[in-house]
Amino acid sequence: MTVTELDTVEAETATEPRRVNKKELRTARGLLLPAVIFLILLTQVPFVVTIVYSLLRWNLLYPNDRGFTGLSNYASALTSGDLWPSVLATVLITAFSVILSVALGMIFAILLDRPFRGRAIARTLMITPFLVMPAAASLIWKYSMFDTNIGILNWLSRTLGLPVVSWSTEHPMLSVVIVLTWQFTPFMMLILLAGLQGQDKGILEAAQVDGAGTWRTFTWITLPHLRMYVEIGVLLGSVIILQVFDPIAILTKGTGGTKTLAYLLYERAFIGLDVGQAAAYGVVTVILTIIVATVALRTLFKVFMAGGSR
Amino acid sequence: MLTTKRALTFGAGALASALALAACSSGNVSTDSGSAGGGGGGNVTLNVATVNNGQMKDMEKLKSEYEKANPGTTVNFQVMEEGDLRAAVTADVASGAGQYDIVTIGAYETPQWGANGWLVDLTPDLQSDSAYDVDDLLPPVRDVNTYDGKLFAVPFYGESSILMYNKEVLDKAGVTLGDTPTWQQVAEAAKKVNSADMAGICMRGKPGWGDLFAPLTTVVQAFGGNWYDEQWNATVDTPEWKQAVTFYKTMLDESGEKDPVSYSFNECLTALKEGKAAMWADASVAASMLEADDSPVKGKMGYAHMPVEKTQQSGWLWSWNLAIPSSTKQKDAALKFVKWATSKDYIKLVGQQIGWSNVPPGSRTSTYEIPEYKEAAAAYAPITLDVMSSVNPKQPGVNPQPWVGIQYVSIPEFQDVGNQCAQLVADYLAGRSSVDDALAKCQSLAQAAGDKHKS
Questions:
Q1: Of A258, B121, B165, B295, which alpha carbon lies 20 to 30 A from A46's?
Q2: Which chain A residues are closer than 8 Å to B415 by Cβ?
């Protein structure tokens, strides 16, 4: 409560009416207006159009049978039994990929933070997976890594005398998570590396002088310092991975509990060719995402806050 | 009308901005050419939407020959991935937007679109042209492109499915296959030649109505099942289906490729070429790739009819066809181009300019009488012609069906039903669900679609 009051007081002093020239304010707003209009046109108008579509009976295969249908598209979206498994798939894939890539990203960031010969080359190589286009990355994994005949992973297991694994058939979700983790580890690594390099070396030296070991220095000084960077990484990673499409379309085609909301939407729109229903799924997805973003992320960050202030 | 059009353009935009962009750009092109054609006469631009298969790309290469022979005509090709083509062309033709003058459509779409009145009836124009020789088109391929006695599209190339096997491997194991083996014989043979290094047989398992369900539907029909009975009642929960789907899984488990969900046409083709699979039942067009000069198994392959069980023939029938949307403003010019691209002369032109093994197969009987083609395609041309003229698209299964076509049901809902059922069956193939569960769910999906077509 006290925090909010403080904020308002500061805000008031910053925009004190006497000090701000009204004319200047108008000019500033005028200059901002085109950008605001552009933003609204680009993001809000399509959303309103989507809402309108979701209330229509409109299947591209039946062009002559179009009309207002009320909420029946929402009813069919909520009762068809496709939505909740798809929500679960999206949450699981996002959660596993983000957690794994943060963990791996942390390890690589710590390794790369130490000075060694050829560090620049190592860092560039580490970043490459993030620069590969998602579809290309999935194809690389499908043919060069997972394939039962020519894939590297199965060549390894054959060489070691282990049974051949048919990744996409037997472990569809794991396959998707592996590809996503491979792609997003560099992203997390970059953010965490920035955090590590921004750390005050003096404090670390002081800790060393005080007799703290490497592990204690890491858990009590470095980790709390990295908290903010982990939060940013998790937030950005979740936002991007929530919309994941390519590895699913290329590796599993939505089988074995990997049909994410993005893939489900694609199926309704481009295979079912049902514009109304696809729009309804889209609106439901947006609502669910807003709920997740506000509730889940806030609780998550509270946990972090509590951990940091300990 | 204007508002409807605008709404539809918006709809396309909401579906995919890329699609909308394409619509804008080529829309401009047609208006330009429309006014030019009206003003001066002679200058015509034809917009052709087509699929990115080899034969279609050859057509694009040869379009200059057509433009040379018809001064003033420009032909624009828009080559797309199959899925994109279907979405783009359906949206355009259904809304009557008219950005394409010629569209490439599959045998699945022709009767439906013909019935909707979206396509120009080609029967009178083709029949009156004796040089075109419409009766030379292979009868089964003509059947699947005919609705209500009218030919709505002409085949550019057609294919059936055949069984392909590595003769060397089968001979070594002492296995011989007849001209038309049964599925049980094929499963036995696959088991015998199966080894750690080489799968006995490669079959499509990638979920999708055009992937897994293309061969699986023909297996179901061979076992006596089908999607619907004559009254559009779904018949997916029948013992025949269960037998066929269980057979498919058992064969894959015992001697198939290891990772079926990843495998479709291209993956199986690679496996066969690399010697990682001994047999393969798939599209007949694959034979020309296995016999290509760069193929390691060239000359080592044997070919047979698609395996049967209760039916006489179980090859599928597919063709890519050229059709003219009713919304075109340049019907006559479009017709002229369609005739050229599907004529006997065009086939000879491809043979001379690009190569005889690249000739579009399975559209005309006369193709198989050209000496140069007979020589270039000696390994697979006779069996392709034989299979393609013996399949019966009007009744491929044991029981009569209310649509014409093999391997698919020509109702708009089938893509969706087939796709969802393929995912259910793929889960069964991976051992995540039971066959009864998968087929029961598929039955209810199929029934919901069938109910819309009961009269």
A1: A258
A2: 271-273
C-alpha to C-alpha distance for A111 and A200, rounded to whole angstroms? 18
What is the per-residue pLDDT across B209-231, written as a single tens digit (0 to 9) for each? 888 999 999 999 999 999 999 99
Q: With an 8 Å Cβ cutoff, are B260 and A169 in contact?
A: yes
Kindly state whether residues B309 and B265 are assigned to the same domain. yes
Of B78, B68, B92, B12, the C-alpha closest to B47 is B78
Q: Does A59 touch chain B (CB under 8 A)?
A: yes
In this structure, are B294 and B424 located in the same domain? yes
DSSP, collapsed to helix, strand or coil, labels residue B58 as helix
Instruction: Tell me which DSSP letter residue A144 carries.
Output: I
Q: What is the pLDDT of residues A244-297, one digit of tens each?
A: 899 999 888 888 889 999 999 998 888 888 888 899 999 988 888 888 777 766
Do the Cβ atoms of B225 and B393 come closer than 8 Å?
no
Looking at every residue in chain B, the average pLDDT score rounds to 86
Contacts of range A264-270, beta carbons closer than 8 Å, 24 or more positions apart: A264/A82, A264/A83, A264/A86, A267/B416, A267/B419, A269/B15, A270/B15, A270/B83, A270/B87
What is the assigned CATH class of domain A83-258? mainly alpha
Q: Are residues B51 and B194 in the same domain?
A: no
pTM: 0.81
Domain-embedded: residue B165: yes
Q: Give the pLDDT band (50/70/90) at residue A7.
A: very low
